Amino acid sequence: MRRPRWAALAAGAGLALSLFGGTAGPAAAADGADTPVSLVSYNVCGGWNGTENPCRSPLADTPQAPDLRAAEWAADAVGRAGLTGTDVIMLQELCKGQYDALLPKLAGYAGYFASRQTYGGCGAWGTDTAIGQAVFFRSATPEQIQGSSVKVTVDDERLAVCAKGPVRGRHTFACSVHLSKSTAAGDMHELRDHISANAGGASVIVAGDFNREPTDLSPALPAGTPVTGPLVEADAIDDEPTAAWVAPDGYTAKLDHAFFSTEDFHTLSATVEDPQLARVKDHALLRALAFPRKPVPGDLTGDGRPDLLAVRKDGALRLYPGRDDGGFGSAQVLATTGFAGAVVSHRGDWTGDGREDVLARIGPELYVYPNLGGGSLGAPVTFPNREGRWTGTAPRAVGDVSGDGRPDLVVQGGTGLWLHRGADPATGPSLPHAALAIGGAEWAYGGDLDVLVPGDTGKAGGEPDGLNRADLWARERTTGKVLQYRSNGASALPATGTELAGDTWPAAQRPLAVSLGDGNRDGLADLWVTTSYDPQTQQGGDLFFRAATTSGWAAPVQVGSGGWGYVESLS
């Protein structure tokens, strides 16, 4: 399959996963997506017709041509299993003829099938007797699917079949697993390594027929090195069996499971159903739901708190993880050089993986640095068809200004302020629309206004407007006033901003000012400023937090001592 250029950025970057035993994940404030991702995992027993357990569909024995049998089976499967409308479908023990018949029945889906073995029973569905696993993505095209597979058993040729594709606007790495009962403890490191090498920062879903009960899973898939997104089971109730190996006892063990990366999903659930597609209840269908985590504006680390990026005068880029009090934890060095003079910002998910990314204008280029999880950054990519066009501008990611649900840029150029609307992040970072002038000459790059990006300001300076659009603040460098400009969608901002009551912070005394959004979790966007540094006395260069209130600004709180005079810019 053709691989989108930008999707390959972080492949092989070494995403570290502990596949099982994860915790509840980031704080509840990071949650908020309204619609859950739905998953079906089902061992369809496509080829087995043995005397002890003849589970293959009775349709295999009807007096029809194999392709007609397969078409009838596909229609039966879609109806009985309720596949239509499911976001991700994973099928195990699927014959190639069944896959070829099923895909046209799933309108709007794209899929990936892989196999390393054949089975005679699959001849009931076509001349190709390959048997394997498949993954289907709803609302996807074949060009968007990047498939791969890895051998995961030592005694036969069974695979974990994986594919990366779009799931509700974010890139997801989904693996359909089928193990043998004799899989030895530790063998599953192959799957863990495959995910680490190929997920590339995408959300991760692993489901299928593990042939192992819950108590066996930890030794089968041992925890790896430091985690960025552990996987946890959607349904941890052990008394819901999914497979029957000894007739006539019925379902006797829970051997099918669905796992989701906790950094990307929350509030997991699962149910078991019997679509009765087979003669014998060999496996039940597992249906799972998981709510995708909604990025918190300004949050790079995934803990639900806005974080601070600092560009030092030596070109180093540092990340300071936010706390609940407007302060920050210890710095993480993202780069030791290369960012001198850069315009850096971070608002919005530009790569479709549900994580906020970093944008940087370096020289004439504007780059997206994908967030791989925990704030670590992948290799940069330039915006298509926009190469070399950013000299003498200050482009900043601001969130969704236009209200179309997609991330946007505002750019201070030589003549004023411009809005560049972003594309659907599932298609990769791009700016497909013509730039719109939304501010006059007073906004020109290098002028008196510092652009601050507080997000949707809500109650700060007025009642919530309910539009979920990112607003702007501007600091007048000379007077120190902070002005609020409510978003006007894809139209020009108000000609005059609303001054936010309280102290003023002229640039001569407060060189740097930044808004990261809500720093103390009270629902109001806040402000951070630095104090000027005197190299003679070596005094100053501190960082202060200014919490917003409904009537102005709270008293300043020092959250950084010294050293901030060596910082060139904050975002």
Question: How are the SSEs ordered, and which strands pair?
Answer:
Blueprint (H helix, E strand, L loop, with lengths): L36 E7 L22 H16 L6 E8 H10 L3 E10 L11 E9 L7 E6 L7 E9 L2 E9 L10 H10 L4 E7 L4 H7 L10 E3 L22 E6 L3 E9 L11 E8 L15 E5 L4 E4 L11 E4 L7 E3 L12 E5 L2 E5 L1 E3 L2 E2 L3 E2 L11 E6 L8 E5 L4 E5 L14 E4 L9 E7 L15 E6 L5 E4 L12 E2 L13 E5 L8 E5 L2 E2 L4 E2 L2 E4 L1 E2 L2 E2 L3 E4 L6 E4 L1
Parallel strand pairs: 1-2, 7-8
Antiparallel strand pairs: 1-12, 2-4, 3-4, 5-6, 6-7, 8-10, 9-10, 11-12, 13-14, 13-38, 14-15, 16-17, 17-18, 18-21, 19-20, 22-23, 23-24, 24-25, 26-27, 27-28, 28-29, 30-31, 31-34, 32-33, 34-37, 35-36
Distance between the termini: 38 Å
- Calculate the mean pLDDT score and round it: 84
Tertiary shape: elongated
**Beta-sheet strand percentage?**
25-35%
Biggest sheet details: 6 strands, mixed
- What are the low-pLDDT stretches, counting only 5+ consecutive residues below 50? 1-32, 218-228, 459-466
